[in-house]
Design a protein that fits this description.
The protein is of the alpha/beta class and 209 residues long. Helix content is 26%, strand content 27%. Helix 4 packs parallel to helix 5. It starts with a strand and ends in an 8-residue tail after the last strand.
């Protein structure tokens, strides 16, 4: 079974601890919400889980079928969507998708054309990403995360910039992902994580002054 294990991890910027003494396990087929107010460190924790930033103490371990996964191979297992992640502005939508699947193929032999229909942006396939609205960008990022052939789904503020139709699309697709992935949602909007079985409150791991 795939799991991510956190052992007393801590992260600080300069002399301030963002979180400390955080231990938790994320298991396959579980959905977990990382919750807390804006600026509390949720996104920092998500990036630490993905190996995008280093922690200052403790250990993050990926284990699959009782074998430890080297840090440099974590990216093969996970998909990450967040409003602050950049897209290549000069690429068209079609070019963005084709570039992405060179590194992370789609699951279930999904074609690029099928994917564009799923995210309902097929008519924009030749439009440069730099001309996309914030909602279109977010839907593209989410779609790439949902449909990549990965076992871990990290969703930071997943419905930022989405309208009501986009929000319903998100809920429909995340429900499908719950069947066979570890799904971790970072949010302070309860409607984004109503399906999550467990909650990890970042405020529980603040250093008391």
């Amino acid at each position: 079974m795939l799991k991510i294990s956190l052992e007393n991890i801590g992260k600080k910027f300069k002399n301030e601890w963002i979180f400390r003494n955080l231990s938790f396990e994320f298991l396959k087929n579980e959905s977990i919400a990382i919750i807390g107010p804006n600026g509390s460190g949720k996104s920092t924790l998500m990036q630490a889980l993905a190996g995008a930033i280093p922690i200052n103490e403790g250990k993050v371990t990926y284990i699959n079928e009782e074998k430890f996964i080297p840090d440099e191979n974590w990216h093969d297992l996970l998909s990450f969507s967040a409003p602050y992640l950049e897209l290549i502005e000069e690429f068209t939508l079609a070019e963005s998708v084709n570039f992405h699947i060179k590194f992370k193929p789609f699951q279930n032999d999904l074609t690029s054309s099928d994917f564009l229909q799923i995210i309902d942006l097929e008519k924009h396939k030749n439009k440069p990403v730099k001309n996309f609205s914030s909602g279109m960008r977010q839907k593209l990022k989410l779609g790439l995360a949902f449909y990549s052939r990965t076992q871990i789904l990290l969703l930071d503020e997943p419905t930022s910039n989405l309208d009501q139709n986009g929000f319903e699309w998100y809920l429909h697709n995340v429900e499908k992902a719950l069947k066979d992935k570890i799904v971790i949602v970072s949010s302070n909007e309860p409607k984004e994580y109503t399906f999550c079985e467990k909650h990890l409150n970042i405020l529980d791991f603040k250093v008391k002054s």
